[in-house]
Specification:
By secondary structure, the protein is of the alpha/beta class. The protein has two domains: about 180 residues, NAD(P)-binding Rossmann-like Domain (Rossmann fold, 3-Layer(aba) Sandwich); about 30 residues, no CATH class. It contains four helices and eight strands; from the N terminus they run E-H-E-E-E-H-E-H-E-E-E-H. The strands form two sheets. The protein has a six-stranded parallel β-sheet, with helices on both faces. Helix 2 packs parallel to helix 3. The longest helix has 22 residues. The radius of gyration is 18 Å and the shape is globular.
Length: about 210
């Protein structure tokens, strides 16, 4: 049994939920954290404690354990594809939210943070055959709903680098492309317009016997 405690922020999201359960099955002491007021008893089935926390509010972190933290997985933050476009929400939830998470790690004596970057920071290499080296220059699209989102992500990584160099908090930055998982809502927002997700369109056409 591994007694190391891992706090998973964004645990009510698809990736966060699967990861929290996986870490528990691997023997870690997992704390699940989400913005939803209730997890509807989901995590209790796996003997995982759930906390409702607004990462934009530093005082909200007082509900969490304040010591013996081994690592933090920080998957929380607004996605532009899930909400109508609002740059203030993106900055607050991603950049300020990450700063608050880092302060929580520092105060609680945590050792490391795992954080997902967006591939849109390498937008200038999209649709090319150039291999994506991990040390490539981070940038951001100049237009579109992923512009401020990527700016917020890049700023969050700059904060993580500061906390690594100043306080020694180890960091692991993962660049995720789209992870396809089932969700009951087949729609997302593209530049503020509600549309059915492309892969769900393909599934719908297959089910109807239509050409894809």
């Amino acid at each position: 049994m591994n007694s190391k405690r891992i706090v998973v922020f964004g645990a009510t999201g698809n990736i966060g939920a699967y990861l929290a359960v996986h870490l528990k099955q691997e023997g870690y002491d997992v704390i699940a954290v989400g913005s939803r007021k209730s997890d509807n008893g989901f995590f209790a089935d796996f003997e995982i404690k759930y906390y409702s926390v607004d990462i934009r509010n530093i005082e909200s972190f007082n509900r969490l354990p304040q010591k013996d933290i081994y690592a933090v997985v920080h998957f929380a933050g607004i996605l532009p594809s899930r909400y109508e476009y609002d740059s203030n929400i993106l900055i607050d939830s991603i950049t300020r939210g990450t700063l608050n998470v880092l302060e929580y790690i520092r105060v609680s004596g945590g050792e490391k943070i795992i954080f997902p970057q967006t591939p849109f920071d390498l937008w200038y290499l999209h649709n090319t055959s150039i291999p994506l080296d991990p040390d490539l220059r981070r940038d951001f699209p100049r237009t579109g709903d992923h512009s401020v989102y990527t700016i917020a992500k890049n700023a969050a990584i700059d904060l993580i680098e500061y906390y690594y160099n100043t306080f020694g908090i180890k960091r692991f930055i993962l660049r995720f492309f789209t992870v396809y998982q089932y969700h009951p809502n087949p729609y997302h927002y593209s530049n503020g317009i509600k549309k059915m997700m492309p892969y769900r369109i393909l599934i719908e056409r297959v089910l109807k016997g239509e050409t894809i």
